[in-house]
Amino acid sequence: MEEMIGDRFKAVRKALMLNQDAFSKDIGISQSSLSEIENGKFSPGSDIILSLCRYFNIDSNWLLTGTGKMFLEKKPESENISEAGDEPSAADWQLQAEQAAKTAASRSESEALAGDVAALKKQVNELFGLVRGRMDVLEDAMVEIPVFMHRVSAGPAVASSSEIEEYIKLPTVLLKHPKRSYAVRASGNSMVGAGIHSGDLLIVDQEAAIKHKCIVIASINGEQTVKRLLIEDGELVLAPENSHYQSTPITKEMNFSILGVVMHIIRTVY
Q: Which residues form the HTH cro/C1-type domain (predicted)?
C-alpha cells in the first residue's frame, strides 16, 4: 500500500518518541487533528507542514514525497536561504512549505485519479459480467430450425427437395411450435402485396391452425408454392397477392397438401 503524508507525520512522532498529545502541541494543532492526519482523513495545510518542518528540522521534501531523509543533516547554503546565520528565514520556510504543499496537492490529485480509475474498472467488469449473464439467458432463449435448400414459389409452383442448407437460431418467443418449425426462401413476386419478396426467408409452422386467409406453403402435385389460402363454401383456393397472377382453385384431381403456415418473414435489406 502506498505511504501517505499522514504515515510520515506518524513516523516523525515515533522517531521523536512523542505521544500524540505532546506532538500536536509542539506543532500547534489539536490532538484530534493530528489523529485525522495520521489516519489519512485530513490533509495538512502549508502552515502545519511549515510548523512541523521548522520545529523538528524535518526535510519538507521527504515529508511530502517520502524521498530523501527525514531530518535535515545540514542547513543548505543557497540563495534561497537567509544570509543572517545558518537558520532559514521565515520567508524561506514559507516558500519551502508552499512548494511542499503543491507537491502534496499534486499527489492527492494523482491518488484521487487512481481511485477513480479503479472504480471505473470495477464498474466495467461488473457491466461485462451483466452482459455475459444476459447473453447466457439469450442463448438459452434461442432455438435452431432448419433452412431447406429449395425455394418455394411466389409464382408458379416449383419442385421441392428435403435437403437442408443450414440452421438458423431464432428466439423461442417467436415460435409456438419450435420443433415443428422450419425456414425456406421465397422465389418470385406473386406475393408482394403480402410483403413477401423474392429472396425473403419465410418462417413456417407445421402445427399452426389453418384458417381462412392465412398464408401457407402448399404442395400441388409435388411442387411447392406460397399463397394466401381462401376457404369459401368448403372450397379451397390459393390466391396470389399480385394482380398479374391468377388464383388456383384446389380440385379433387390434384395431389394437394398444406406443409405449414407462414408465421414470420425475414428480409435482408443490406
A: 9-63
Any idea what DSSP says for residue 193? G
Query: In this predicted structure, what is the pLDDT of residue 270?
Result: 67
Query: Which domains are seen in the chain, by residue range?
Result: 5-131 (1.10.260.40), 142-266 (2.10.109.10)
Residues with Cβ within 8 Å of residue 164, at least 6 apart in sequence: 146, 147, 148, 149
Categorize the per-residue pLDDT at 74 as very low, low, confident or very high, splitting at 50, 70 and 90.
low
190 assigned to active site: yes
Of 46, 51, 190, 219, the active-site residue reads 190
pLDDT given for residue 77 in this prediction: 44
pTM of the model: 0.49
> What is the distance between the alpha carbons of residues 60 and 66, in angstroms, rounded to a whole number?
9
Query: Active-site residue among 227, 247, 252, 257?
Result: 227
